[in-house]
Design brief:
The complex is a heterodimer.
Chain A lengths: L1 H37 L3 H8 L8 H18 L5 H21 L7 H12 L6 H14 L2 H8 L4 H5 L4 H108 L1 H29 L2 H5 L2 H16 L2 E6 L8 H20 L5 E9 L2 E8 L11 H12 L3 E6 L3 E8 L7
Parallel strand pairs in A: 1-2
Antiparallel strand pairs in A: 2-3, 3-5, 4-5
Chain B lengths: L1 H25 L12 E6 L15 H13 L3 E5 L8 H10 L6 E5 H9 L7 H6 L10 H5 L2 E2 L2 E2 L1 E14 H7 L10 H11 L12 E3 L4 H7 L17 H15 L8 H5 L3 E7 H7 L2 H4 L8 E4 L13 E8 L6 H13 L1 H4 L1 H5 L3 E2 L2 H4 L2 H11 L7 H9 L10 H17 L4 H21 L1
The chains are: A alpha+beta, B alpha/beta.
């Protein structure tokens, strides 16, 4: 921003310098005209000039008015390309009037426009066209090019009024001021270039930082994925170990007791049938206990959601979460009462719905899933359809296989086929009022 | 941000306003804003007579015209600055132009007309003349009207004029028994009379009576039908037979004086038979009080200039012109006043009363009233022929105004002098000089 302030103050310097130059030339012209009148040599001056000159008071007044309006137009900032072109056009027109007024003795104010255009038009279309036009006007505004056609009197002709030495001093001052203006313009452009270059550097370094951060983020992401995989594997291993322990502790224990008890029965059956009966009762108890333990283990494996809430709520919650997580549209329609089922039935309903949704998203790439649950003569029907790519040749994965197995345990059946998406139908016979 | 936007807009608005004011000043449009109810028309005039005769009536014609004009155009006031002498007038006018305060209407001397027209200080009147049905340019002497032409356009109207006539010392002619030459006299008659009167009357061995004084090569060119330049001043016609004849005639005439340089004082003293003068001088010194101041020792009369072999009794015409400021904001009123001054018989007839010039309107100059007035003023009845005057004005040599005509004439003057002083072949010299002057004209145009 500091760079900007420096170029602003150089520009302000140029504005002031141009005002001084214009007033200086206008003042000389007016003074010479009044001088010719004062010395009674106006007629010979007019004969030499060959055209009517402007009234002396008008030259400085018009110079100040035109220059003031030029500065105000230069100060106006706008982003609109059309407005900028219009503005630049007006500025050039004012400059032409000023140059004509000063009889082509000074054209440096066009550098003000050039500096302005170069700085402001960074975002404008055909920026270089505008710069080119201003440059062309600046280059073509030559006294000799127009003096013949438009009866322009050189400043030198006005200055004939003064003695030779004074004349040359006046001209030197004018030329030095003009050169100073060009010098300021060059410094301004260098400053502008430097500012733009440092701006570019800043953008480059920011870009670099962004790239580095991006790379780090990708690395972290990869690590996270690996970690997630590992943690799944860990969980699986833990679960397997727990299952093994569970099986070993409950079923193994019970079965061992049952086997030992049955072996004893085999030995005793001929000698003490009564003892056998007692023994069998004990074995039955052990088996029952084992069964309880298995139930407890299975219960421990049930999904969390079902553990905490009702089936219907759990289903809706699961669908809601999926919707949120994967932005899939899920239509759900349930005409059956979803309470008072056995735990295994609840679980399989939950698992079928969950697995179907997972399959639809993962394999079918579906964006819309329709789920319908209905009850018909003690048979629950679950129907799931998605708008995904379906499956030409269905390869039964772990999910489907597992579903079939579970349904088979409850004497249910599973059907699936592809028709504008994947369609899955499951029916589960419900046991009413059985043991809980 | 919003405040910033407001600031931007007001900056542009003020900038546009300043630009507008500048344009209004630049185009002089502000002069059209009626600050005052009354329209003021300014006229540039000088205090003494154009014909160098002090008669005390310098502003009389203008005053009468202003009275008429203000009566016809209520709400318009005409102003003029009095007290500017004729010798300072062109400079005064130029100063007013430089200061941007030039009058709406001003008098222009014939000699300054080209300069002022050249710099664009004068309004082109051609359009006004054509669109105005009440303006009949046929009523003007075409030669007088032509004096206000520059290039192909009319930039001024003639106000008054005076043709060049030949003044004759009748006393000398009577002494020699020579009758007054007729209106159609020629160079041969002229030369014969000059040769006859050139004498050493007192017998002291030097000539003391001469034929002519002040007869220049330009007079000879005019009366031999020489047209020196084309209309646009791009070409000089110095190689014609008329020019050669005129120069030969001048050489022959000068040969009579035997090397003695005759001055106009010799004419005043009654020792010269002829001197070309403006008609205004005749009018100034013919009437009684002034007639004893000059030319009192002899009888004199004015007749047309002698005609050359290829020309007629033609001479130059000095014209005082009336022009309009090119930047006037009151074109219509200025034109009306201009017409009143220049083309209205009521005003033009006053020229014969209050000035020494000749009206630029044919009807006025040729009227009986004018004749009566001239006879009354001159005090002798021996029949002043108005036709001589009218013819001299009507057939005056037409010169075309163009840029730097004066400088070009100076070049021709140099050429003629050089040829007359030298002794080489005139035709050859003329060709060489013609080439040189053409080159000069070309350079003037390219300047």
């Amino acid at each position: 921003m500091d760079e900007n302030r420096i170029s602003n103050s150089i520009y302000a310097g140029m504005l002031n310098l141009n005002l001084i130059i214009i007033l200086y030339i206008a003042g000389i012209m007016a003074a010479c005209l009044l001088g010719y009148v004062h010395e009674n040599t106006a007629l010979s001056f007019l004969q030499q000039v060959g055209s009517i000159t402007m009234a002396p008071w008008k030259i400085p007044v018009l110079s100040v008015l035109l220059y003031g309006s030029l500065v105000l137009f230069l100060c106006a900032k706008t982003e609109n390309s059309f407005l900028i072109y219009g503005k630049t056009g007006i500025e050039i027109a004012i400059c032409l009037m000023l140059v004509r007024l000063l009889n082509f003795s000074y054209t440096g104010m066009l550098l003000l426009i050039l500096a302005d255009v170069t700085r402001r038009m960074t975002k404008v279309k055909w920026k270089y066209l505008a710069i080119g036009i201003v440059c062309a006007v600046y280059l073509l505004l030559d006294y000799n090019l127009f003096s013949d056609r438009y009866h322009i009197t050189a400043l030198e002709t006005y200055l004939v009024y003064y003695r030779g030495d004074i004349r040359s001093i006046l001209l030197v001052v004018k030329n030095v001021l003009g050169s100073l203006n060009i010098l300021l313009f060059i410094i301004y452009m260098i400053q502008l270039m430097r500012a733009q270059m440092s701006e570019k550097d800043r953008i480059l370094s920011l870009n670099d930082k962004l790239n580095r951060a991006n790379e780090e983020l990708q690395l972290a992401n990869r690590q996270m994925e690996e970690y997630a995989k590992e943690s799944i594997k860990n969980a699986e291993t833990q679960e397997r170990n727990r299952l093994a322990r569970e099986i070993h502790d409950t079923l193994g224990h019970s079965l061992t007791g049952i086997i030992t008890g049955l072996d004893a029965c085999v030995t005793l059956v001929d000698v003490a049938p009564d003892a056998v009966r007692e023994q069998l009762k004990v074995i039955a108890d052990v088996a029952r206990n084992g069964m309880t333990d298995v139930r407890r283990s299975v219960k421990a494996l049930r999904p969390d959601a079902l553990e905490k809430m009702e089936l219907e709520k759990a289903l809706i919650e699961m669908m809601e979460e999926t919707r949120k997580a994967s932005h899939v549209e899920i239509e759900y329609c349930c005409t059956a009462e979803l309470t008072h089922y056995n735990k295994d039935e609840e679980e399989i309903i939950y698992r079928i719905v969950q697995e179907s949704i997972t399959n639809a998203i993962r394999h079918g790439k579906a964006s819309k899933i329709m789920i319908a649950i209905s009850m018909e003569y003690h048979v629950m029907n679950i129907w799931v359809k998605d708008n995904g790519i379906g499956c030409k040749k269905i390869e039964k994965g772990f999910g489907l296989h597992h579903m079939e197995e579970r349904l088979a345990m409850l004497h249910g059946s599973l059907n699936y086929f592809t028709d504008n998406g994947f369609i899955l139908e499951a029916s589960i016979p419900i046991r009413w009022g059985e043991e809980r | 941000m919003k405040k910033d936007k407001w600031k931007q807009r007001s900056a542009v608005a003020v900038g546009a306003a300043l630009l507008l004011i500048a344009i209004v000043i630049l185009t002089d449009a502000y002069q059209k804003i009626p600050f005052r109810k009354e329209v003021v028309l300014t006229v540039g005039v000088f205090s003494d007579s154009y014909w160098e005769v002090q008669n005390g009536y310098s502003y009389q014609i203008l005053e009468d015209a202003i009275a008429l004009f203000e009566e016809e155009h209520p709400g318009v006031r005409v102003e003029y600055v009095s007290g500017i002498l004729k010798e300072h007038y062109p400079e005064w006018l130029a100063e007013q132009m430089v200061l941007g305060k030039a009058p709406d209407l001003f008098l222009v001397f014939g000699e300054n007309f080209n300069d002022f027209a050249e710099i664009g200080a004068l309004k082109d009147l051609s359009g006004l003349m054509e669109s105005d049905d009440s303006f009949e340019k046929e009523r003007f002497y075409s030669s007088a009207l032509n004096c206000g032409r520059y290039g192909e356009r009319q930039y001024a109207l003639p106000y008054e004029c005076a043709p060049k006539l030949m003044f004759v010392n009748k006393t000398i002619l009577t002494e020699e028994g020579i009758p007054l030459p007729g209106e159609n006299w020629t160079w041969e008659d002229f030369y014969e009379i000059c040769a006859a009167v050139t004498k050493d009357t007192d017998g002291n061995g030097t000539l003391d009576r001469f034929g002519v004084v002040g007869y220049t090569w330009a007079d000879a060119f005019d009366s031999n039908g020489v047209q020196l330049f084309d209309r646009r001043g791009t070409e000089c016609y110095l190689t014609g037979e008329e020019v050669r004849e005129a120069i030969l005639f001048m050489e022959k005439l000068n040969g009579l004086h035997d090397g003695y340089s005759v001055g106009s004082k010799d004419f005043d003293l009654g020792n010269v038979a002829f001197q070309p003068m403006l008609f205004s001088e005749y009018r100034a010194y013919k009437p009684y009080p002034l007639s004893i101041k000059k030319y009192s020792g002899f009888e004199w009369e004015c007749i047309p200039m002698p005609a050359g072999n290829h020309g007629a009794n033609i001479s130059e015409l000095d014209t005082l012109l009336l022009a309009m400021n090119a930047n006037t904001s009151q074109t219509e009123y200025a034109w009306e006043l201009m017409k009143l001054l220049s083309a209205d018989e009521r005003i033009q007839s006053e020229i014969f009363t209050y000035s020494e010039g000749v009206s630029v309107l044919k009807d006025v100059t040729e009227s009986d009233e004018t004749l009566q007035l001239l006879i009354e003023r001159s005090g002798d009845n021996n029949g002043f022929n108005l036709d001589v005057l009218s013819d001299a004005v009507e057939h005056a040599a037409v010169t075309f105004g163009f840029r730097n005509r004066e400088e070009a004439m100076e070049e021709v003057n140099k050429a003629v002098r050089d040829i007359m002083e030298g002794s080489s072949n005139i035709s050859m010299e003329l060709i060489i000089w013609n080439r040189e002057i053409n080159q000069f004209l070309k350079n003037q145009i390219n300047r």
